[in-house]
């Protein structure tokens, strides 16, 4: 179990030695941790809930993503705490405790890959593995002030990872610096080292930045100056992403009317509808995966998780075909918008991490706006990186860049190219 000295990040201390001690390996002598959703041979995969751990046997093999990291020379030092059944973006766990956010100790760390992000942010490991379905890498990366990468959907094997909702599940990772983020990514994605490719355009989604309580103009101006300095101002474009999505994803129309009034307030209608479609399909797939177990075991679930699981158990296949159409259409629309080497810039989240134990009712409007932003990559399957920018009013700030499906290596290289200039141009404090 976790101790206070490790920020509550670790669920279980496990030492897995690297497959080789060859100093030429890309991750030689580095340490990492894994979310307690990945199978490790001989250990029970706990899925964030003691009733799950009690009713499941130890894994008989290790997840391929973990094996790939071990073969690259890194040492695994433990499994990390996560939100129960991966069904939250807060990072609070009533059974195992809430990992302490090293960047904002009185705030939530973000979930569901909470412990993995905290372990990196607190310097307990060099990098870590998590999963991202609705935002479970991007959110804690943003809240803990570190890098987080959600890869293109289906590009990294999720074998040996407990499914949450397969249409969205991805294996993601965290690092404190952009160079290591790239190195880990190239191992997981099995990519060769190649020279960075110049982006063809950087599109700033102005309406998305207007959702943010952190002054969006500060980030937008910093992005613009960075692009001008590195590549030339002709690459910069500005777009109303909500209007573009509404015009180019016709299947969304059936979800617009279903969006709750509180979700529409201070929100972008088409992206709120996109979020609605994502959560509908997520609930349906969660029920298919785990509904029978929940009904049979009646697990003790924490606040918020319990309500979401109950909603999932009531899910039907109504409108599932429309959800799948939305997925196909938005990927095509964003691919057309970006082209081969275009990049889309959005806020990772609409604001800083909420305070610990904030009532669920208070969080609803924030959650709605958060999922509007998170669903862009979630539903389209595009790759997305959350980049830490420092602190504003003593709280961590981030920005996200997205690229077309399969352009993960290009996006990782771009982060290395642009990061230092971006930090200089935005000029936020690191303290």
Question: Explain this structure to me?
Answer:
- The protein has two domains: 10-189, Amidase signature (AS) domain (Amidase signature (AS) enzymes); 201-426, Amidase signature (AS) domain (Amidase signature (AS) enzymes).
- The longest helix has 29 residues, at 269-297.
- It has 15 helices and eleven strands.
- The chain has helices spanning 50-54, 64-71, 114-121, 138-144, 178-188, 206-209, 216-230, 241-248, 253-256, 261-264, 269-297, 305-313, 320-338, 360-380, 408-426, and strands at 10-16, 31-35, 75-80, 127-132, 147-150, 170-175, 201-205, 236-239, 342-346, 383-392, 395-403.
- The protein has an eleven-stranded mixed sheet, with helices on both faces.
- A hairpin with a 2-residue loop joins strand 10 and strand 11.
- It is an alpha/beta fold.
- One of its GO terms (molecular function) is hydrolase activity, acting on carbon-nitrogen (but not peptide) bonds, in linear amides.
- Belongs to the amidase family.
Brief rundown of the structure:
By secondary structure, the protein is of the alpha/beta class.
Q: Return Rg in Å.
A: 20 Å
CATH top level label of the largest domain: Alpha Beta
* Alpha-beta classification: alpha/beta
- Biggest sheet descriptor: 11 strands, mixed
Per DSSP E runs of 2 or more residues, the count of β-strands stands at 11
Give, in spatial order, the strands making up the sheet with the most strands. 1-3-2-4-6-5-10-11-9-7-8
Proportion of helical residues: 25-40%
N-to-C order of helices and strands: EEHHEHEHEEHEHHEHHHHHHEHEEH
Strand % is: 15-25%
Morphology call: globular
CATH architecture of the largest domain: Alpha-Beta Complex
Distance between the termini: 30 Å
Determine the CATH topology of the largest domain.
Amidase signature (AS) enzymes
How many H/I helical runs? 15
Integer tally of domains = 2
CATH superfamily of the largest domain: Amidase signature (AS) domain
Protein name: Amidase domain-containing protein
Organism: Cannabis sativa
Family: Belongs to the amidase family.
GO molecular function, one term: hydrolase activity, acting on carbon-nitrogen (but not peptide) bonds, in linear amides
